[in-house]
Records
---
Amino acid sequence: MPTSKDVARLAGVSQSTVSYVMSGRRPISEETRKRVEDAMAQLAFQPNAGARALASRRSQVIGLAIPFVPDLHMGSIMEFISVIAATARQSDYDILLITDDEGPEGLERVVGQQLVDGLIIMQVAGDDARVPVIRKLPVPSVLIGVPEKRAGLECIDADFELAGTMCVEELARLGHENVILVDWQDTVVTRHVNYVKRFHRGVDKAAAAAGVKVIRTPGRVTIAGMEKAITKALKENTGIPAFIAPEGANQDLLVEALTNLGLVLGKDVSVVVNCPDRLAERQRIPLTTIWMEPDEVSRRAVRMIVRDLTDPQSRPHEDLELIKPVLKRRKSTIRPRSQR
Amino acid sequence: MPTSKDVARLAGVSQSTVSYVMSGRRPISEETRKRVEDAMAQLAFQPNAGARALASRRSQVIGLAIPFVPDLHMGSIMEFISVIAATARQSDYDILLITDDEGPEGLERVVGQQLVDGLIIMQVAGDDARVPVIRKLPVPSVLIGVPEKRAGLECIDADFELAGTMCVEELARLGHENVILVDWQDTVVTRHVNYVKRFHRGVDKAAAAAGVKVIRTPGRVTIAGMEKAITKALKENTGIPAFIAPEGANQDLLVEALTNLGLVLGKDVSVVVNCPDRLAERQRIPLTTIWMEPDEVSRRAVRMIVRDLTDPQSRPHEDLELIKPVLKRRKSTIRPRSQR
DNA sequence: GCGCATCGTCGATGCGCATCGACAAATCGA
DNA sequence: TCGATTTGTCGATGCGCATCGACGATGCGC
């Protein structure tokens, strides 16, 4: 493997000049720059990451703590990871994975070894065990999710509370007097992932304000379970029912179950689900969606950590960014009065 | 951050001794070892990864090339990644992500920078553009998947051909005379991912051997689509139909569609799907499964690359490991004669 | 025409660790 | 009993790069 010394020799300059060509931290004449760059190209030179990290004390690597989640919607996590990795590359950072298997010590390890310059922590729970660890670490971190005690931390997430509010307001605006909330699975709700709580708060607030009644039914993993849950909820309901399904995994099941029960979306029933446009549009009846913009959350997380790393001055003492969800009206919602 | 020099000073030994305590490459007296280890613990010493990489010329990092897949079953990819990362840690390796966005050059970059000691390449297609690049790289790689030209490469994958054979043989053994293969989506089939081809080959071979007729219908993304496809396939079918659904994403849809059509699994129809035990068992009617053991594939991939790295002598010129799928008989398959 | 700042380059140094050669002390075999 | 190992430790060196101080060469104002 060629080194910067080899490049220097070929270009007829000193090694330090090569280094300054790369970093641009000192003025270099146009002519010298060209000679060096040609030499680099000719040798296919790539700077050694270890040496660079050692000398500069920065690894250009960001650690990404990924969740362990057998029952959570895995596909969406994959999406986060892809977008984070791709976005990081645009700022010349690589992504190193940290699994939950290692526990919070994994974070201490990668930071202690100076393998990473900063951390992005996914799926942060309200009482996340990683939070106290992160606080003590000498590198910046960005949390995706909002822990209960977030003093001194930088957090980003979708605005679940606003999402809840938007769903209810939209349905209330259409004239619905009840909404049936098809909730996350119980296992998720009880795991202190507080975005569920935040969504509920948004729903409840808006419902109170609009005088709408909320019926809640837990999410199910099978169609049969979903049908049963829906049937039960429908008994409490009066008028044309309106459903909200904030969890991605519930979306298919809900639509399918309603169809099985003979209810036509946008005619006999209103439905708002959380799913990407692509999916919503290819349904038999295009779905009205509340979309949490996970890609945007991912990009912003990267942007935050990169800012912290490139310009430590600008690092806020703490920060909470909530991404506004997008409500897209399609064909699965209806104005109930017009049907009576 | 404490360095090995600090540890040495505290323990009253030389820095090199500290290094030898860590690596075990020279004998160290029990007493000295203890003093050094105590000093390490006291200072919470962690060796600097950059310095270590520079001096030892190994980064203890494995690059993982992840696929870009909007329509492929994302959840399963996530599973691969988790298991790979966790397994790698057990051998003291970390995982660095390489996305498809960077193209094959991404591989050259991480290797050129000596960021990684080796590569694991996921979702290798028959004519994968990454394969010629990998061939030229000076580090070992393990491919998950089987490219067409695999001379000189180490590959691992589930044995899709055997899986196809096992499904058909099982159904033939039960007495079915036709099988309906609910295939991958067209977009996947045409993308040269040759595991589809291998599965088909296994199915066809076994079908020919057992005198079974194969009816093929492409996978669909909606229940309605699936119902239509099934209805069509059923017209060609005689006797009690038998379905095989090798793609995970089809599994729910198929079961649901059959149910909607009034067919009871394991009574009116036999079904073999590819899905994890956990999922198969919590269905209304537990499903007979052909499971491709993705976790085992992941673990083996890591084991292979780790072996290559720790003992370069033993690195095979080329290798192809195929993991045997597991067929588990549950309640969704039936002996057709007994029903007549 | 002279001092002074800026430009452009070089050499030297050190980042923190692994590794090699050296060497004293302990152990062994004959 | 003495050479030949083996054991246990140290000092020196270098991995490849970033960075600092130094310094000659220009350009500037006056």
---
Amino acid sequence: MNSNEELKNLLDFDLLSKLVVGIGEVSEITGVPTRQIRYWEEKGIIHSSQEAEGTTRKYDYLNVKKIILVKELLDDGYTLDAAAKKVGDRMKLINEAFAKLAQRSE
Amino acid sequence: MNSNEELKNLLDFDLLSKLVVGIGEVSEITGVPTRQIRYWEEKGIIHSSQEAEGTTRKYDYLNVKKIILVKELLDDGYTLDAAAKKVGDRMKLINEAFAKLAQRSE
DNA sequence: CATCGATTGTAATTAAGTTGCAATCTCAGA
DNA sequence: TCTGAGATTGCAACTTAATTACAATCGATG
């Protein structure tokens, strides 16, 4: 049994993907003000799942992770666009790894 | 490098533990009506993190997992109390495994 | 000092969640 | 069939959380 299988037994990836939190929670977790999160979203850097206009935005694990990474780079002196690009590249890898793990859990 | 270390590199357990969702979300995920979730909580079977009276309940991964398991047993014919006990035992193991994984991530 | 990127403030509105009280539903046993 | 305990549900009145739109601010750079 390889490590991924062990992992799948412990962690329910299907559930993980459904754990979507509100913007207030994201703000508390990341330290980024809600206003700023919405701004990044306006700019197309973050993509929450918002069913329709006027309904509340929801953020999954990967969304929150991305916000954390962007914030780290901003704090480090990057411009928003540069940070977004850099994080985008890294998120690709994380997304792929997750996709693999989530595969057989359906 | 063992599987747990690989896992830690991929999954941010600190973040996972902070992903707490509202009761409406839990209801959608699990198929258990919000009213019923509150009832189970009243009975002491579920323990959401509710800062104070009147504020909204929040449920983390393990809470939601527990609700899913309880529901499965109920659907299978168990009484609520019996299901709660059975699930409680299983959650102990899951909790321990998570505690181990969450350790060095701080 | 004007411009641009980045962020922030706020009012008015809607969505989501809370409690408490009471009603209902199920079903095993007298 | 009646009944009582366990389990669930309905709902009104209320509070908290989140939404949008418009405008203001703030710092760095040419």
---
Amino acid sequence: MNTTDKPLVLVVDDEPAQRALLSYNLKAAGFRVSTANDGEEAMLAIAEDTPDVILLDWMLPRLSGLEACRQIKASAGGRQSAVIMVSARSEEADRVRGLETGADDYIVKPYSVAELIARVKANLRRVRPAAAGAVLEAGDIRLDTESYRVTRAGEALHLGPTEFRLLAALMERQGKVWTREALLDRVWGRDIYIDTRTVDVHVGRLRKALCTHGGADPIRTVRGAGYAMD
Amino acid sequence: MNTTDKPLVLVVDDEPAQRALLSYNLKAAGFRVSTANDGEEAMLAIAEDTPDVILLDWMLPRLSGLEACRQIKASAGGRQSAVIMVSARSEEADRVRGLETGADDYIVKPYSVAELIARVKANLRRVRPAAAGAVLEAGDIRLDTESYRVTRAGEALHLGPTEFRLLAALMERQGKVWTREALLDRVWGRDIYIDTRTVDVHVGRLRKALCTHGGADPIRTVRGAGYAMD
DNA sequence: GGCGCCTGTCACCTTACTGTCACATCCCGG
DNA sequence: CCGGGATGTGACAGTAAGGTGACAGGCGCC
């Protein structure tokens, strides 16, 4: 899963015009976009940087959309992405086959751009709750992923980028314990190799920041396991 | 799938030096390691004790890495392992072919040891999530493996890591009598050398913790056999 | 170039946890 | 009622895990 702030959408379509159109609209909606011509290129793109959402055209050369979907869902990275099949066929049978293959959603041409964006966001929320521009809340702490603002009991807090993403991760799954390794993956990124103790340091900094205006420490340390937010 | 605490990594490489190097580093990182010379030995090793992660060299005698990967993924045990292809070839095409064959990840020589370990851990997390069932219940005791929380009659209890795992083991199979040896295996790990009396001590501590807010002792001592939870 | 902010690492400290021992207690066969 | 093996448990020292201040490098911004 990519860990930058903007969600990444992969567009898989063999028509350049269609790719350009989708790219333009998705970028305008604040997403990063990568493109692929066919199923094989798609697998490459996924290995390169795992997208959050994949828009997959039904009709593809070489590797059909259906088969591409199966492979994506069978791969390590692709399993973490939401796959939306895009098709001109409106038949129910195809829809069923698409979903059976592991597609998460289905959208039929012709569609409005608004509908497309809405679908992407909906799936994004499911796959990566914090990235969809949601406001996360936990107790008296509010974190707005769109405006990058964090408040506690109404008081604004200043966090660095890393602390921000760390807090977002913790709040995304309240109560759940994150191991240091999982946090490194989620906050720092999959291909970054960093000492796990660094997580401790950042948790410490985050704690200090969260308590600047008083209030109890909201982060729970689980000895031998990791950290959790309550 | 093996069930001890230490994950098992199978290294498949025809160069003894390479095997030794990988083994050393993986063991240093806390993994158990088995090795295989080629694809056929790999299949044997998998039948012996299913590894959690398989490091598969691209170039192998007799059975190419690609073909070996296909066979592994087609076998009963191998399907449960994450396969990481290790290759000197950096060509994109190979990467695709590797992933198409069912490899879960791909790493290209030369790679740093840190990267290798990180990859192994990342795949391990995916293959073997901490625990299957999130919440265990027995009587008025609740144990949540995701949030690492234990409550009795609603009251939160504080347990150390070992006590937590011990309780989880007992609750996982209510009524079953665990021998001290089995508990040592399950809670402490397979090849850990510890006095069996230590189990008694921890059971005692666990009992005390479970009864802090009153309530009957839920752990039954079976004289001459071990312990069980009712 | 100077400055300040953010980051990752390290070293040191504190604390909780752990494994073992010694001794008390219990259970059961004889 | 007794002896011996099995279990309960308080004490204790060693250790591993986590908290934290310090520091140097990187980076963007004046």
---
Amino acid sequence: MPIERNAEHTRARILEAAQEEIYENGYQGMRIETILQKTQLAKGALYYHFPNKLALGYAVVDEILLEHVKANWSEFSSKYPNPLTAIQQLFLWKADVYKNEIHFKGCPLNNLNQEMASIDKGFHERLEKIMATIHGSIFAALEQGQQQGLVRKDINPGKIAMFIMASYQGIIGAAKCMQAPQLLADLFGTLNEYIDTLRTPA
Amino acid sequence: MPIERNAEHTRARILEAAQEEIYENGYQGMRIETILQKTQLAKGALYYHFPNKLALGYAVVDEILLEHVKANWSEFSSKYPNPLTAIQQLFLWKADVYKNEIHFKGCPLNNLNQEMASIDKGFHERLEKIMATIHGSIFAALEQGQQQGLVRKDINPGKIAMFIMASYQGIIGAAKCMQAPQLLADLFGTLNEYIDTLRTPA
DNA sequence: TTTTAAACCGACCACATGGTCGGTAGGCAT
DNA sequence: ATGCCTACCGACCATGTGGTCGGTTTAAAA
């Protein structure tokens, strides 16, 4: 069974393997040799699709992480009309997904951010763009909630959106550091209690 | 002016240089060559004091980071008798310290945690120990506050302590990712508002 | 069928990097 | 002064790693 000779597909496989490697070892810990092993490709193939290691790393951010975030968010914001509820449900879902992870590796986006944002400018620019996207989504949700009378009007949507995003990252990070994804339920629970205080009092 | 031949001092210089390197490039990005350059030592000196790179990394955690955290905390908890206020002041101080950083590199402890906790067991164990120390401090502060009637008695000190710690990390991380330490004031401000809700109502 | 270019192969290279080891100098006890 | 051990030197090694390049295969056009 010869592996299909399809450029797009090959490129996608490389990206996927690279994403996995970065997720497990960080960008600096990712080895192209390992990617070749995982994809059963030769070096020439990889360097045909990507000029160098850095470009591959960038591509993972642009084509995998960004899309993943967008998909995630749009799913929940369309499922739950109340924006605060959408955010809370997203958190609970994350807690549930990672609950039984044997080896919890955290959030791919946050990991890369922590590792590379202050080291490499290219990564920083790309990752900041994603962060801005997320922040913009939460911000818009809060503002929309205010207009609909669902969210208190005495809060600053920009600041609160940033805080929620930061707490989310922190929670994932803490659970990762402690290697204890079962903490996520409690932590997101506490965060969700805080989010409840943003609702318009009944 | 011959550099003093003092084993303890030399070892300390190596550790300091290593800490800086890790802070700037992560453990995986730290290079022995750079440390030798910074300390003006030869390779033999470094490998006389440390058996290998990993041991050096571990030593940085045990002898630099842990001590730094302990010193930080004890300073503020002794300066402010109200535990909640001590925590809040510590945050505001951090925001102020980093405010004008040109190239904000985040929190050394959090950085290493994010990078190595899920990769290397030795790092994980050591870093978790520090996290547990911090958590224990906040936990004790909250419990003590409850006994003194300063902190609401309907909250779970363990969970809240974990949440505060996670949020702290997240805030530092977010500011790092955005390369915007001026965000810290707002973010810690929001966190402190949350902490205010933990006080016993007047 | 022949041609052509995209897609892929894999041996090879340059060099960075962690680590070794025989040697040397400083300082302290005798 | 002499011996001796700690502290340090720096050339050298083994290996890992990103990257190159001439060549080969596949698929579709001519």
